[in-house]
Amino acid sequence: MGSPAEEPPLPAPDLYRDTWVRYLGYANEVGESFRAIVPVSLVWASYGVATAYVAADAIDKGKKAAAAKAVDEGRSKHAAVAVVDTFIWQALASVAIPGFTINRICAGSLYLMASMTHWPLSVRKWATTAVGLSAIPFIIKPIDRSVDFLMDSSLRKLYKTEE
Question: 57 near 90, Cβ under 8 Å?
């Protein structure tokens, strides 16, 4: 009897995509959900957290792209493409589009509750926050896919990435 074939080791998890750190990219959606009941400075701080996540992921992907190139020739370009691609993708998919989407969902729900209910303003604001928070899981995948399509149809055609 032979020994079982050894399976190749699994790649190390990506800190910015495969761990709890990924949720920092959603900080601004949470901030937008709470906009009706917290000072606006806290909402802007949530954008700061999400933007820091985006920048850290872009830098990480640039370092990994540079390290993957065995030869110095083209290493800087390879890293720069990785940084730019990751930063733009994350800025759109994690900050700009979801932040705007949750903002509009919350504004719309607050408006509708004001016109359709007799609830006190404080109840409507908390209900709006709940609507915003509950919408986050539903908007993520469609936005990610849309940003993939947008990037593949535009910016990514301008540069060639090596697999």
Answer: yes
pLDDT tens per residue, range 15-30: 888 889 988 999 999 9
17 token code pair = 């995509």
What does the chain come to in residues? 163
Q: Which helix (H) or strand (E) segment is 84 a member of?
A: helix 75-90
- 132 closest CA partner among 106, 96, 101, 110: 106
Q: What SS3 string covers 114-129?
A: HHHCCCCHHHHHHHHH
Place of tokens 């290493």: 75
Find the mean pLDDT for residues 22-44. 96
Structure tokens at 73: 């020739």
User: 10 Å Cβ neighbour count for 61?
Assistant: 23
